[in-house]
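Long-time lurker. I teach an intro course on protein structure, and each term I like to show students one example going from raw sequence to a predicted 3D structure in token notation. This year I'd like something fresh instead of my usual example. Would anyone be willing to generate the tokens for the chain below so I can use it in lecture? Attribution to the forum is fine with me.
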Amino acid sequence: MGDQPNPRSLPSLNRRNVIRSLLFKIPASQQGTTFAPALHFSNHSSDCSSSTSTDYSDKSRKIRSSSHTASSSSPPHVSAQSWAVLDIKSGKLVGGFREQQPREIASLTKIMTCYVVLNVAENYHISLESLVKVSRNAAETCGTSARLKEGEEIQIWDLLHGLMLPSGNDAAVCLAEHFGKIIAKISGIEGKCKEPIKYFVREMNQTAKELGLNSTFFNNPHGMSMPKNKSTATDVCKLAATALENELFQMICCAEYHTCYVVQPSGYSYRTTWWQNTNKLLSEGFVGVKTGVTPMAGPCLCASLKSKGKQVVVVILNSKSIDHRWTDLPRLAHWGLNNL
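-- Reply from a regular --
Happy to contribute to a lecture. Here you go:
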């Protein structure tokens, strides 16, 4: 790779320092590369609380339950079998259809995965520049992929993009394994942690309770079909509205593409990879958030739209087709803004 250090000339250097030199020798100004200035948290604190639940701000709890709100005009006809439109400022529903019906939500699950990772990292001072090793389990995860390979190392910040842009199930497992171990360590049961993903999913469900998502239950970190992995259009709206308050979350889910460098198993070389966001509405002025589709959930989409100081977040579940998502959601978003 042209600009790499020769490992033979660096016998006294720690391997981690060599890896970091590989990553940061590359100009951050290259097109598509994102090294956010807000990522410099300190290392994981050794005196963390023994509780597995993360403390969330009062600001995150402001989204409250409310009944269907009457609007000045009828909503447009859309193909989605369930939908909801939420006014972010008030936390109230503008409208919905079967909005309280529990359904599979496919990769909209990753909204919670990303939100939990960012909160645990911030609350326990974990640097998003930390490198995570890709396990065989993560690399072999089926479904949509960020194309990660066993033994590679990649920064948490980049993994979050691999999670949200190409909707990588491999990235979801990688993050859940890494942070599941951290959560287990915080709980004082690190030595007994045989299945770290379970600890991470437990944190996802604890967070759902904290946010008042009473019809939501997660069974995995990626949203692949499982009967128990369900939520509602209303709950996903509330989750997305809260997550969008996090500047880093918004930065990630609004990125149209992301380029990063993945350290090879040898530790002395890297490969470049890039991902394009599956959300086509970003080019039309929408804010995030996430696409999703499985045979059971159908095509799903969550996105937000701002106009003249107003903002709504919209969730559609089980649209008629993937292409219908790109017309269903804008219709509801513009209708919602007009009826605030």
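Some talking points for your students: The two ends are 55 Å apart (CA to CA). The CA atoms of residues 269 and 313 lie 42 Å apart.
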